[in-house]
Amino acid sequence: MVAKPKRVIGQLTVADWQELKRQLKDVAPSLGIDQLGVAAADPFLSLKQKLIDHQNKGFASGFEEKDIEKRVHPAIHLQQAQSILAIAVAYPSKLPNPPQSAPGAYRGVIARSAWGEDYHRALRVRLQRLADWLHERIEDVRVELMVDTGALVDRAVAERAGIGWSAKNCSVISPEFGSWIYLGEMITNLPLPPDIPLTDECGSCTLCIDACPTGALVGPGQLDATRCISFLTQTKTDVPDEVKRKIGNRLYGCDTCQVVCPKNKGKNWTQHADLQPDPELAKPLLLPLLEMSNRQFQQAFGSSAASWRGKTPIQRNAVIALGHFRDHTAVPALGRIATSDQRPALRSAAIWALSRIGSDEARQWIDKALHADIGSENR
Questions:
Q1: Secondary structure (3-state) at 115
Q2: What angle do helix axes 331-340 and 311-325 make, rounded to 10 degrees?
Q3: What confidence score (pLDDT) does residue 361 get?
């Protein structure tokens, strides 16, 4: 079969671009993409002041791109940017046959966004398939792919592209898939006709704001990331005792504001094999986490988005979870951490957990820890 000749951007008509957009939407599911929208690559000027205010109020997590100009000007990343293809890939919200916690075998929980294959890799693979599809058809197409760690604000792009509306819990809610979606985008030099943004359907509902464990949702669509449990579970330093109590048995991330959302009710997506969870990794046993080497951690969690900060945050959170459960069988392991671990955040968490357990043995370990002379190493 003779391949069709590639077309050149300057030779295509308005009708051609409409047809190409239709073809893109039709082919998206076969590329592993659940939803595709098109946004103009104009600067996100209304977003700029919001980002400045967010930063000035101290609400930023520090994980974001610090140069606001890069976050609002697509043309910085691709010269002659004309449009942005926004994609959404739906992920599961329900764990099949979830393992149960039991005395001496308590478990932590990993947020749904970190179940299955690391979404950064999963979305980049899908965006590359989309780019390849375009390169096969358009001679002079140019693209720039972004997934989460890119400079643009994924939610702003998805909202402009009609994927969904930006909700009060700061997630994008798709009418079809809810907020259980990963977002990515591709800046292009193709003048594709843009989609129309959707109307906000949150209405007067404030369930997400009311349910936030730490009050991090300071207003509709306003998140103080420094108070968000999802952010706090990814930090490597100590957290206040009040926060420890709120973290509970969360090891990575927090789903509360999405779980309570009525728009997510009954939605669970299982069409992507690479995003399906291993129940033992989604709800892992806590005690084995404490003794994991770096190699063992990478073997267990290396393919998950939960691994990007290394083992220290998850081990600290596992210590907090054992205190949350008041697991008496964990006292020796917690005592060893409290008295000899080189990481101050883990020692502090272990002393807190032992104080929660409160047995004579736990108090003896606390006394040893308070008199121990331990060097400091932040790993």
A1: coil
A2: 130
A3: 97
CA distances from 71 to 46, 145, 156, 298, 323 (A): 12, 14, 10, 32, 40
Residue 194: left if φ>0, alpha if ψ -120 to 50, beta else—which one?
Answer: beta
Please say whether the beta carbons of 151 and 77 come within 8 A: yes
Is the CB of residue 76 less than 8 Å from the CB of residue 69?
A: yes
Strands 109-110 and 250-252: parallel
- DSSP code of 86? E
Extract the tokens encoding 262: 């009525």
pLDDT in the model for residue 3: 59
pLDDT at site 116: 96
Query: Which tokens belong to 168?
Result: 């009060």
- Report the interhelical angle of 331-340 vs 344-357 (nearest 10°): 140
Residue 375: the pLDDT is 59
Checking phi first, is residue 206 left (phi over 0); if not, alpha (psi -120 to 50) or beta?
alpha
Structure tokens belonging to residue 197: 């943004």
Q: Residues for the chain: how many in total?
A: 379
Residues of the chain with pLDDT under 70: 1-3, 375-379
Are 95 and 255 within 8 A, CB to CB? no
Query: Which position among 42, 148, 200, 238 bears the catalytic label?
Result: 148
Which of 113, 101, 114, 111 lies closest to 322, judged by CA?
Answer: 101
The answer to whether 67 is a known catalytic residue is no
Q: What is the DSSP string of 121-186?
A: HHHHHHHHHHHHHHHTTBTT--EEEE-SSSSS-HHHHHHHTTS-EE-TTSSEEBTTTBT-EEEEEE
Rounded-to-5 percentages of helix, strand, coil across the chain: 45, 15, 40
For the whole model, what pTM was predicted?
0.94
Q: What is the pLDDT of residue 123?
A: 97
Of 24, 169, 168, residue with least CA distance to 86: 24
